[in-house]
Amino acid sequence: MAKNPEQRDLFAGALEIMILQSLRLKPMHGYALVKHIKEVSENLLQVEEGSLYPALQRLLREGLLESETGISAKGRPTRIYRLTEKGVRHLEKEVASFEKMFTGITRVLAYAKA
Amino acid sequence: MQVLSRLFDRRRRFDDISVSIQEHIRERAEELIDEGVARDEAERAARREFGNVTLAQERSREMWQWSTLESILADLKLTFRRLRKSPGFTATILLTLAIGIGANTAVFSVLNSVLLKPLPYPDADRLVALWLNAPGASGLANFSHGLQLSSSMYLTFSERNQTFESMGVWTMGTANVTGLAEPEEVHTALISDGVLETLAVPPVAGRWLSKADQDPHGAKTVMLSYGYWQRRFGGDPSVIGRSIAVDSEARGIVGVMPRGFRVVDQDFDLLVPLAFDRSNQKLAGFGYDGIARLKPGLEIEQANADVSRLIPVWMDSWSNGPGTNPHYYKIWRIAPAFHSLKQQVIGNIGNVLWVVMATVGLVMLIACTNIANLLMVRAESRQHELSIRAALGAGRRRIGRELLTESVSLALMGGVIAPVVGYAGLRLLVAIGPANLPRLSEVSLDARSLGFAFLLSLISGLLFGSIPALKYAFTDATGAISGANRTASAGRARQHSRNVLVIAQVAMALVLLVSALLMIRTFAALRNVAPGFTDAEHLQTMRIWIPELLVADPQVVTRIEQSITEKLAAIPGVTSVGFGGALPMERTDPNWDEIRVEGKNYQGGEPPLRLFNYVSPGYFNTLGTNLVAGRAFTWSDVYGLRPVVMVSENFARESWGSASSAIGKRVRQFKNMPWLEVIGVVEDVRQHGVDERSPAIVYWPAMINDPYSQEPQIQPSRVVTFVIRSKRAGTESFIGEVQRAVWAINSNLPVASVQTMQEIYARSLARTSFTLVMLAIAGTMALALGVIGIYGVISYAVSQRTREIGIRLALGAQKSELKWMFVRSALVLTTVGVAIGVGTAGAVVQLMKSLLFGISPLDPLTFLTVPVVLVAAAGLASYLPARRAAAVNPVEALRAE
After folding, report:
1. Dihedral (C-alpha) B257, B261, B265, B268: value to the nearest 10 degrees?
2. Which residues of B141-150 are buried (b: 16+ CB within 10 A; e: fewer)?
3. Contact B401/B75 with Cβ under 8 angstroms?
4. For residue B55, which residues of chain A lie inside 8 Å, CB to CB?
5. CATH class name, domain A14-113
6. Which segment of B243-257, B604-618, B785-799 scores lowest on mean pLDDT?
7. Which residues of B touch A61 (CB under 8 A)?
8. Contacts of A78 in chain B (CB under 8 A)
9. Residue B485 confidence class, pLDDT cut points 50, 70, 90
10. Tell me, what's the pLDDT at B564?
11. Residues 73-102 of chain A whose Cβ lies under 8 A from any Cβ of chain B
């Protein structure tokens, strides 16, 4: 059920780090998260709902997030996800390692073009 | 508590997930409505965009589950539900499994207790049995498993060896205990110093027999077995220090051995010191079992080398009396052939047990193939369902796992019932097993057996489950749902794996039936052997022993024995009575020694050893041993100490060419002894069992001049077995009268080993009959299972091909041809199975060689009969369903569309 066949799969850990980063700004519920990532990435990234909810549960289980009862944008009860202290630390470590990886990939790609 | 709170927590999580997802979709839908999309359309679009809600939920929930475990639990629930729905199927499989696994567990328990478990002594792996080889002692080699130790050997070896921590010799005997209740004959283990130290089991009360107790001139002592202590003294601890009369000699009780303690493999009542007197030991008298405990870290080979060195020392240190050559035994070429004590205890029963284990294992394998077949038929009927599930995205693994879950849980359920069957089987095995099965008392259903049952059920579950699982997990989904299956006959491939199973079954059944028939033929051959006595069920036997302390005068001993003979002969219904040193197949030999035939030169100057027996007048007549030539002993031969002997027919032939020419010829034992005249020749007797060749026997009168003592001395037969011919033999009243007859002569004589000759004879056949019964049961089960297997396959083929049969009939096929078509396919399978089975059996029966008698392992009759029986059974088993095929009504078959 790929919505856009041209869109490539995210690599491992990418979805999690984006969720954590987004929630660091403010606690959100599921749909808000999807919209947030879509808007911020200017439609370049689209989160699959089929992966989002399992990923959220995984992060909850690992104690990086916590969930609380909250109100959606439309005023109905839903679950709001919030980053924990552990989540913040995890995010910072992951971001550092991601940046290193991006730099590496960028350098290799740049070298191949030259 | 934590599990509960986690479960509760999980429930909340699951709710959270669905709330979140619901809200997600609604929010998106409302957004779309805000953008001007119609409500219906917006909701559909929101759902479409979200994708598979159930899947997302399931994946999210899985984060909180042990997913594999829980889906296995779900499979289990499903399995049980399905099994409950088909109780007949379930019961059939469970029963087959319970019996199969139970039988295997029972046999394994025996195997484990007898062969695998160490002997019940500390550090039992360091215990060795001290047996010697004497290849130069001709005569001994034809029955014995080696040479035992003499008392002088014990003295030399135990003092001079460097490899044993301790060593000792022992022998079993009987003793009359008097003064407690009525005179009782008890089993004694006569032990030297070192035996208890070697076995290393501490007493429960008192102390061990010590070195001081072995002093022939010291205090007379004795130890009790736990059983005797309980039986005679009620377990009274104050018994230590009391004394009992053993063979009319007062002995002080010094200790009690614990429950279950046996001397090697022998139960006993009393432990009596051998108390060798150093001053009158000779080289000869090889009658003791030697045991030793190796020093830690040493091997049996080192002990062999150590004791080899001591054999010349032994010959230098002792003699057989003045004028004898102490180095005579050089020609015997005595050499140590020690082996582990366990090997000694187990003996040759290992062979039988492995054959029985292999047999029940094979039956289990056949049962598994049958169950696999059943499961396949069942899976076949679920083919449609399985295909649909595969099409909906169920993985092969998932379907395979579900099928396996079913079979493994069936197997484990069978495994749970199995120990019950196993326990019953074990009791049965122990009851019908050979009475001489070693370590019988140790046999039990222990943790290891239960572990075996569990493992076996698991393995068999995987085994019979993997066949359908592999097959159906890999079927082509589209073919099945497209409906092709309903209109056409099953493909070749489908039938193929079931055919392979049938072939395997037939082959295995053939191997079992061949083995069973070989044992039946062996048994028949043994039954046909003339044992040297007749009409064994009408021969009552019993043993008495007249110790020297009770009756010192040898003449009186013989008089008492004669009076008992006459008293017994007077019992109503008794036709004749006699006694001898040992009856045929009693497993004791009165004596072995040299005998020289007059005028014959022997290789190396020494004649071979011959079995001696000491018999009364009337002995041969009572047993039914034919007198071939000459005459039998009379009482005047006995009391007159006349220089006469009788010999067995084979001895007469070997020495003088024929039985009749033996009469009047002369023999003697040693050079300085008077010649003895051969007065009679009797038919050969299977003294050591039907399957052992008849030994050459020299028969002496029941009382003779002692050939071994220096001074002239008369030697009576103090231990004799009476044999009484009567139609009443074996009955309670008759035995009572026999006992009273003995006590009428001397009330201090216990009557021991009361049994009929038939029982002795049956015991000598026990190993064969046990193997026979086991193989016959297994063979019958294999045949039945094989027939059911063939029936099942053909009958299933018929039901699957009903439509095809209809078409054939409609096109004009003959009914007989149709029947033949199905029977033929069964016969082809059977023939292939038979061919494979004959090849396998040819190899397998070589392993049974030692259990066979009088027939070749490749007995042509057996190898012809079994295939014919199997093919006939297969023909019958396929004919029944084939007839149904011919009865198909083409109109109905085709309308069934």
Report:
1. 40
2. beebebbbbb
3. yes
4. 50
5. mainly alpha
6. B785-799
7. 63-64
8. 19-20, 23-24
9. very low
10. 95
11. 73-74, 76-79
Assign residue B576 a region (left: φ > 0; alpha: ψ between -120 and 50; beta: otherwise).
beta
Task: Give the number of other CB atoms < 10 A from CB of residue B62.
Answer: 16
Summarised one tens digit per residue, pLDDT across range B843-871 is: 888 888 888 888 888 999 999 999 999 99
Give the helix/strand (H/E) hosting B475: none
Sequence spans of domains, chain A: 14-113
Lowest mean pLDDT among B267-281, B466-480, B710-724: B466-480
Residues A50, B26: C-beta atoms closer than 8 Å: no
Amino acid at B809: L
User: Roughly how many angstroms between the first and final C-alpha of chain B, as a whole number?
Assistant: 59
Sequence-ordered list of residues with C-beta below 8 angstroms from that of B608, at least 6 positions apart, any chain: B137, B138, B139, B594, B602
Structure tokens that stand for B724 in this block: 């009484």
- What ipTM score was computed for the predicted complex, to two decimals? 0.78
- A74/B26 touch (CB, cutoff 8 Å), yes or no: yes
A contacts of B50 (beta carbons < 8 Å) = 49-50
pLDDT higher than 90, residue B680: yes
User: Which residues on chain A are in Cβ contact (under 8 Å) with B49?
Assistant: 3, 49
Out of B52, B55, B63, closest to residue A57 by CB: B63
- Total residue count of chain B as it appears in this document: 897
Q: Does B446 touch chain A (CB under 8 A)?
A: no
The 10s digit of each residue's pLDDT in A6-27 is 455 666 678 888 888 888 888 8
Residue B802's contacts (CB-CB under 8 Å, 6 or more residues apart) are B888, B893, B896
CB contact under 8 A, A31 and B64: no
Helix/strand/coil for B424: helix
Compare all CA atoms of chain A with the CA of B60 and give the residue at the minimum distance.
Answer: A54
Handedness of CA B74, B77, B81, B83 (dihedral sign): positive
